[in-house]
UniProtKB/TrEMBL annotation:
Binding-site list for Ca(2+): T403
Superkingdom, natural source: Eukaryota
A GO term, aspect molecular function: mannosyl-oligosaccharide 1,2-alpha-mannosidase activity
Main location: endoplasmic reticulum
Alphabetical list of InterPro entries matching this protein: 6hp_glycosidase-like_sf, EDEM1/2/3, Glyco_hydro_47, PA_dom_sf, PA_domain, Seven-hairpin_glycosidases
The protein's required cofactors: Ca(2+)
Name the UniProt record assigns to this protein: alpha-1,2-Mannosidase
Keywords, sorted A to Z: Calcium, Endoplasmic reticulum, Glycoprotein, Glycosidase, Hydrolase, Metal-binding, Unfolded protein response
Subcellular location, record wording: Endoplasmic reticulum
EC numbers on record: 3.2.1.-
Gene name of this polypeptide: si:ch211-282j22.3
Active site, UniProt feature: E69 (proton donor), D192, E286 (proton donor), E304
Amino acid sequence: MPLSCRGRVRGQEPNRGDIDDSLGKFSLTLIDTLDTLVVLNKLDEFEDAVRKAVTDVRLDNDVVVSVFETNIRVLGGLLGAHVMADLLRQRGERMQWYRDELLHMAKELGHRLLPAFNTTSGLPYPKVNLRYGVLNPLSRTGTESDTCTACAGTMILEFAALSRLSGEAVFEEHARKALDGELYSGVGAGIDSYYEYLMKAYILLGDNVFLERFNIHYSAIMKYISQPPLLLNVHMHNPTVSVRSWMDSLLAFFPGLQVLRGDLKPAIETHEMLYQVTKQHKFLPEAFTTEFRVHWGQHLLRPEFAESTYYLYKATADPYYLRVGQSIVEKLNAYARVPCGFAAVQDVRTGTYGSVDEITVVMEAQHISMDSFFLAEMFKYLYLLFSEKSQLPIDIDDYIFTTEAHLLPVSLSTTQPPCQGNNTETVPVSQEEDLFTHSCPSIETLFPNNPSFAKTIRDSYKYLTGVGRAFHPLPVRCVDFRVKSLMKPEHKGVYRVKLVAEVSHTPEEEEVVPHVVQLISPPFLGRTVLTAGPAKFGMDLTKQEHGVKGSVVKASPYTACGPIDNAVELKGHIALALRGDCMFAVKARWLQEAGAIGVIFIDHREGSNSKETPLFQMVGDGDSTEDITLPLVFLFSQEGAMLITALEEHHNVDVLLLPKERQLGHGEDDMLTAPEKPRGEEQCFAFLRI
């Protein structure tokens, strides 16, 4: 935590939800940044850090962690550091005491992650207890039924490297099986590193099956998702339909992947678009619209844009990309540097520091995070961008970067794989197409006699963010059916974008008195009562004799983190909004300004319910919330799903927001008349933003 100059210890700091799933009660930042020290030529510091990791880090902890994050940060960090330590030992100058301790730790961690793969599909559970596994009664996990594509598909590099370095085939076997059950419909959050690992697995392991599979996906991406310079997610089962009018910052990795593929023109186009966005907003916001306005304002110090900048400079030798890198360094120093590191920016529109979760803002305002990936990736890519090859202690071209920028030697492709065969099917291609997809074209072939080819491409997008120059992608079209009705049972929940959790716990000594949402319109007539959590701000429902009643209208955008598009429809009604992406108080202010008379927030974490999940009170944003006068309640996802289903099936649903259930007489007029929901495009956009 760079403002307080101390580390974050899980269980001793306010819970940040899913963000903390990478913390396993070990020195995460130490492990994640070991090989960074070698790249920076800090070899004495590296040897000292390895000693500390070997001496102090223990992996047998009773803690539930993310399989994905633990794999890329911890297992990848241990493997990358082992490769560096072994190289330095072989040179005979240092690390002579090293006896593969990091590899032994990596193997131990690999075995602790393996229980997550004990599924019929081969797809791993998203979480595992490092001591008790998954299905053990003490594990406190194993109930999850879904995962994201990247979470399941970003295992092959680390697990295959572990198998080939340790000689134990089981790791690579499980990682290969996990690749045989994926769905894909975008290139951003939740799926990004899956594509990256297919391409890099081919480079690292030399197995054509990974390249062939990547080429199938890449062809579909360029046909349906790519709208140069944009990359817009599409409907999985109808890929001609875009399902978003915004992009998330994680897609910034894609130009770098296109460089590895040898497809420079679209890489230059998309990178230039991203650079224009950073020039307008100082950093890449967590998400931005097709008009390059801020959609989610946070900047979490993500390194993907710097990564793509490095790859483009390596491919083109164009000094323009050095200037892009210089701008990244200058903005980090100007807007994110603090006494003990660099702090994430709460909102690029204001430049303020902040945490992405509400509870930290309120209770620990100075403990702003600097995630380990910043030191593991950002420092590597920027240092490599400005360094000459002769200044590096290793030949960087002998290694492939994992998604966390850990270094694995490409010589692993010459190591006998401990397992044979793969279930992935391939599609026959023509000889000409096969030649193209299995080779990387040179710049001279793509752009003969044109040393300024990159500038020529960039010039077309130079003023994307200028006044009146918004880029208009293909129109988003409404799909007149429910997504869930399209999905086969075996496909449900495979692709899920992980949004940042917004967690607000109440001190144990303070009792949380549950409120209720009571459905009173036909056919419910007060008999359907949903348990709801209260808020510490807004209208106090315990002082309202009859509660607050109104018709429910879903906010658009559903997260309500900005101006409300359907304010006319929402005025005078109770708004339904999704938790996450911004603070409760921010949502409440936007909805109050739109004319709502109350707000029901629904948890974005799938499977949460009032019976099993501890109830909590929603809190404000650290500033005065006296301006918020709306009644606010919170439903967990299962209770929220009941309300959404009622709204979908009956269109007009009237509810009472109450501190406790109210008995309604048969003749009592508790019914409200709600206006009809909009038709056509407005309803379409409200649906697609869910």
